[in-house]
Design a protein that fits this description.
2 copies of one chain form a homodimer.
Chain A (H helix, E strand, L loop, with lengths): L1 H11 L18 H7 L19 E3 L4 E4 L5 E4 L5 H6 L7 H4 L1 E2 L7 E2 L6 E9 L1 H5 L8 H19 L5 E7 L4 E10 L1 E7 L2 H4 L3 H4 L11 E7 L13 E2 L18 E6 L10 H32 L1 H30 L2 H17 L2 H7 L2 H14 L1 H10 L5 H15 L12 H13 L6 H16 L8 H7 L7 H18 L5 H7 L4 H4 L5 H42 L12 E6 L3 E4 L2 E3 L2 E3 H7 L11 H13 L13 E6 L11 E3 L5 E8 L16 E5 H11 L3 H6 L10
Antiparallel strand pairs in A: 1-2, 1-6, 2-3, 3-10, 4-9, 5-9, 6-8, 7-8, 9-10, 10-11, 12-13, 12-18, 14-15, 16-17, 17-20, 18-19, 19-20
């Protein structure tokens, strides 16, 4: 009842500023604001996920993208296809470095088993079915298990028709949506520029302005001859989407209305002060410190030889990117005195709740409860984080844990399995282990595991990882030198004996039943087995916490929204969202102005031969010089007198939005969002007026396809007459 | 004849862009351009050096300044009074750090024996007297000696009336002016802000934009009771200048006309390609490398204790400043491909000369001659530079050389002495040795001399400094380790024995006749004596080169000017110049814009407590916050909604212009120039459209005096009603 009332309130009030990663269903009520900013279409259309333009918006799982032709051509960012490029690269043919253009459909390169194109087809409110009628007598653990069981039941029902489904929580469990997606599994690379274009400026320019990145790439979705998704196969045909976007040869200019539809990953604007404080004062500095260390470990390895460099490059870029983001967030937090502000806001909310008995009754227990929960979490966070760090993403010990757990979970009925290990996920577990092969480097794996173990070795007496102590012969208070020697000796044995880096062996283990797997004595499997009981205990603790949060967080969110008295967008959760604003520069500091656009001439200005970040390839250089000599191209911005490269806008995006189509006031694709500004990454916690999105102008994409890649067949496919593209 | 013709041509053509550090006598012919830009006064007035406004413009010797009250108040930069502040600082009373305000005239602090205010009173063309009728049969050495003797004769005549004179060469000896100046020797500190205001942003912001420096200070010129200049004395009275500038409470705003009159030190726009190439490819990188090394030596020393830190701070700042400038020049040279451009221009000039027999006859030999001269210089430049480096500025070995040479030169008739050692300079030689005491640090002196000696130790066999080899026991090709040990052993002896760091002893040596001095066995004097014969030989070689240049450079300059066919400003030579332009921002790179002004709010934005470069003092912070809360001050820029701090303009200045009054279209002081942009320091070689001057807005000066220093007596003296200054 209360929820319905709030949902109504949520739709009634006017929008402020440009904040908001809106659910598509919220857009119709924002119509006046959209129109005022210059949108010429029908805002109501956004609620229809299969209509125009939302039907053209897709997810790649981690990145966003969109259909740009009736034959399944997909536009996204160059940095969203890095793994795909890495996947198909060899020391002789480096697609990362050189880029790629398929001149025919048969030349399109399958981007590997993990690549997906997800097309959202529906989103249904299932709040009552997930969190309704939960007995208050349930323990927190039982409560969470009930919620998860209900989710699994929903998923099973939803996926009967062959779709991929997800039950997603909004406003911290206040609202649950069941989202159904078409899952296209044969994704092929059509075009990627060389890294010197797609990642021009490298780490130096990452999160920065002025920017001159050609951060675009084209994929194609392929399906079975019957039009249904299926695994990669020779006989597959291009997918024919019901909706696709027209790529605009007019791009976006200062003051223009722009809109992004995509899949933002995570924001934390609705957390409590204590939760945010722990994030910013404990977790963020910890991540920065660890990633800096890990980067130096991997960079040393990358220097050794080119093959290893390809294997570790994606991880290096990922660590560096996250580290810079975290640093930017902390700088922003300090600059805006965010924690003080958040504390004051929370104080005001508490006072507002206290002010009326009805509110006190409905929301009074939420904040104290969440604070107590956070205090409890803090007590073991060093140990918990160290334990998880042992199983780092793409590490062989993580593989071992997956193998051991999968065998164990297989023994259960599907409905009793953990969500992650349900049968519906087996294929992607297998595919992830296949894909892992590209980045397996035994030396890097050992070095990073050693780093994590030494971290655990330094834990205080009350927070030890006991099984690890036993395995490596560690004890609290052991001098660092002694610990390092013990860990080295232990890992020497483990890595001399393990065969998990062998693709065939590793994949074969995924097929074994528990009994058969228990006969395998691979040292990394033994480590995973030794850690398993503790792993299970920590999972149960985590579930109990989630159960507690599912009691406490929804009323806290309700109170915050009710107090705000209006339309609020939920924190990002990797579901389809819409944000809108205008093309606009920024004065990041007194006396300094970021112009809203950059242009080809700026690429020449940054060109530094021999510099891996700023050397412009010869053909691009020649094309730009020819363009500058011409002074009359059709893709030029009249006010700029040049072809625009990147532009800034007031859109509210975050990680996951990468590759998102930027739509103009007429719904055409006028750009691809690919980054935020260092100065405003703090917006993940608190929206700031300075928030800006960096996008590639569609004119730079078209210019590159026309003048550098000479990809006239693709221009034609996108409905652009090639001869008129640039001139 | 030809010269007169050229001088006429020089006045006829219109000015291009804003390039030009014009001689005041050239300004009347630039009247149309001045008026077009917004100057409302009479351009002809600039030719009158004692009239308005030029009579108010003064030199401090190395910096520029101006009278801003009828009682001798002088406005200049904070960084121009650093030595004065250092001079009067002690570990207990750090004027550098804390600033100073004299609340009464008696509180004004004498800034020491070397401080001067020079007021230019006349500039007379003496070209014919200096370089006319020189026999072509003279050797280059004899030619130069004749030119120098003629200069000394002119100086002797000019200085009879008590003025200080200089015979200065323009256009590389094509024109000679005799410049007479009033030399005021009692200069006192009236007001300096704390370093945290005057040098806000420190080395990080130096040469940079956006800038928020309060780089201003006030001095006062004092004279004898009869109004004539004299040494510092109790009975002195404030000087009453005939002209002074009105400090404008309206500052300068975007688009406004601005003009700087001051004393730019040195530009090298009219050198030959070969000369410029040697500067940029040899001398500049060498300076950068050496200064970086020396900085790390001095910074280590500065860390040791605060007293030593004060002693070496000015030198550290000077080295860092020059190093950054050189780096900026080289970056600019690379960016604009300056050397290629210069080569092409010189080729065009050579072709133009060749194209007509009359030109060939007049100018044909100049460029080949200069090239041959440059080639000869290059042969021994490593040795020559290393030799000079032994006698670094403010080093004790330089003192020893001065002492030895002074005794030697004293024996001659004054007219036969080297210019530098003529009797007219004895007092400043003595004063320099007095002042040196403030920065004498035996450890630093030894470390820097060791650095220079080790440099000399590495010279190739053909270019050795033989007397040094004998002194330190060095030989060509000696391993670096062995050389270092020998040099250490030698310097241990020298520095254990020297007393030159003793002020009294050092000054007493300046009074000794050669015979008596020869009995002094101070080890540094012995070193100077051992080096003296080579020193003399190198001086003679240098004179011969100057003689050759005096033959070759004037026709080269004439050819260049004639080809340019118009009004050309001579390279800067520390004489009074005028440059004009407008207040204007800059786009230094595609996508980035430097706004033309900064403001108080930006100081808050940069404030970082505890950071020595960016911590804003508490009283300034409070005053800014009060100002921001008020929102109605009289010193605010209406468009900016705040008090402006610094502004950019298209003025063409260089080192030496620091402290220059920036005049508005009505001739009022609207700012003080204090820096150039890193992006455009290359303008010392080639004027670029991007050249910008950074100045303090007069409103920030007045605001600081009113709201922070509460110096109402000074505002009154400048004709600003204190109560109306800020509100």
């Amino acid at each position: 009842m209360r929820r319905t009332l709030l949902a109504l309130a949520l739709l009634a009030a006017p929008a402020g500023a440009e904040e908001g990663m809106w659910m598509p269903s919220q857009i119709p009520s924002l119509a006046p604001r959209l129109r005022a900013l210059g949108f010429r279409g029908d805002p109501a259309a956004f609620a229809d996920l299969t209509g125009d333009p939302m039907g053209a918006i897709v997810s790649l799982g981690g990145c966003s993208a969109s259909f740009v032709s009736p034959e399944g051509l997909v536009a996204t960012n160059h940095h969203c296809v890095l793994s795909a490029l890495q996947q198909s690269s060899t020391p002789e043919r480096n697609l990362l470095e050189d880029g790629y253009l398929a001149r025919t459909r048969t030349e399109e390169i399958w981007t590997g088993p993990l690549s997906r194109v997800y097309v959202t087809v529906s989103a249904t409110d299932v709040t009552e079915r997930i969190s309704g009628k939960l007995s208050p007598r349930l323990s927190d653990l039982a409560r969470q298990e009930t919620i998860e069981r209900r989710q699994k039941e929903r998923l099973a029902a939803c996926e009967k028709g062959g779709l991929r489904c997800r039950v997603a929580s909004f406003f911290d469990g206040m609202l649950w949506l069941e989202i159904a997606q078409l899952e296209i599994r044969d994704v092929r690379l059509v075009y990627a520029p060389p890294a010197a274009v797609g990642n021009f400026g490298g780490e130096t320019d990452n999160w920065m302005w002025p920017r001159h990145s050609g951060d675009f790439a084209l994929l194609r979705a392929w399906v079975r001859p019957d039009g249904k998704p299926g695994p990669h196969a020779r006989e597959n045909v291009p997918y024919r989407p019901a909706r696709w976007l027209h790529v605009s040869p007019e791009g976006a200019s200062p003051g223009d209305f722009v809109l992004v539809a995509g899949y933002p990953g995570k924001t934390e604007r609705l957390l409590t002060y204590a939760e945010v404080k722990a994030e910013l004062e404990w977790a963020y500095p910890r991540t920065i410190r660890r990633y800096r260390d890990q980067l130096s470990i991997l960079e040393r390895i990358a220097k050794e030889d080119p093959e290893r460099s390809i294997r570790v490059s994606t991880r290096i870029r990922g660590l560096a990117n996250t580290m810079k983001n975290r640093e930017g967030v902390l700088a922003g937090v300090a600059r805006m005195a965010y924690l003080e502000r958040k504390l004051a806001e929370e104080g005001a909310l508490a006072a507002w709740i206290e002010a009326e008995p009805a509110r006190r009754a409905a929301y009074g227990g939420a904040l104290p409860g969440l604070d107590a929960l956070q205090a409890k979490v803090a007590r073991t966070r060093e140990r918990d984080a160290s334990f998880q760090a042992l199983h780092a993403y793409q590490s062989l010990l993580a593989s071992a844990r997956t193998i051991v757990r999968l065998a164990e979970e297989r023994e259960k009925r599907d409905i009793d399995r953990d969500l992650e290990y349900q049968e519906r996920n087996w294929i992607r577990i297998r595919e992830a282990q296949e894909r892992l092969q590209r980045s397996v480097d035994l030396g890097a794996d050992r070095a990073l595991l050693k780093y994590a173990v030494l971290e655990a070795a330094a834990l205080p007496a009350g927070q030890r990882i006991d099984p690890l102590d036993r395995l490596a012969g560690l004890a609290p208070g052991m001098p660092a030198g002694e610990a390092a020697r013990k860990v080295d000796a232990w890992l020497d044995g483990v890595y001399a004996g393990t065969r998990l880096d062998d693709r065939t062996y590793r994949l074969s283990l995924l097929e074994l039943r528990a009994r058969n797997l228990s006969r395998e004595k691979d040292p990394l499997l033994e480590v995973a087995r030794a850690l398993a009981p503790m792993d299970e205990r920590l999972r149960a603790e985590e579930k109990a916490r989630a159960g507690a949060r599912s009691r406490l967080a929804p009323p806290y969110a309700r109170a915050a929204i009710e107090k705000a008295g209006g339309l609020v967008s939920p924190d990002a959760n990797s579901t389809l969202r819409v944000t809108f604003g205008t093309v606009e520069g920024l004065s990041p500091r007194d006396g300094l102005v970021y112009a809203p656009q950059t242009r080809l001439a700026g690429i020449l200005g940054k060109h530094r031969p021999g510099d891996p970040e700023f050397a412009v390839p010869a053909d691009v250089l020649a094309a730009i010089r020819a363009e500058e000599a011409r002074r009359d191209g059709r893709l030029r911005d009249p006010a700029l007198g040049d072809v625009p490269v990147n532009f800034l806008s007031t859109l509210d995006i975050t990680g996951g939005n990468s590759g998102s189509a930027v739509l103009d006031g007429r719904g055409r694709l006028c750009g691809l969002a690919f980054d935020g500004l260092y100065e405003s990454v703090v917006a993940d916690f608190a929206f700031v007026e300075e928030a800006r999105t960096i996008a590639v102008d569609s004119r730079y994409l078209l210019w590159t396809l026309s003048e550098v890649a000479k990809a006239h067949h693709l221009l034609e496919e996108m409905g652009i007459e090639p001869s008129r593209a640039a001139r």
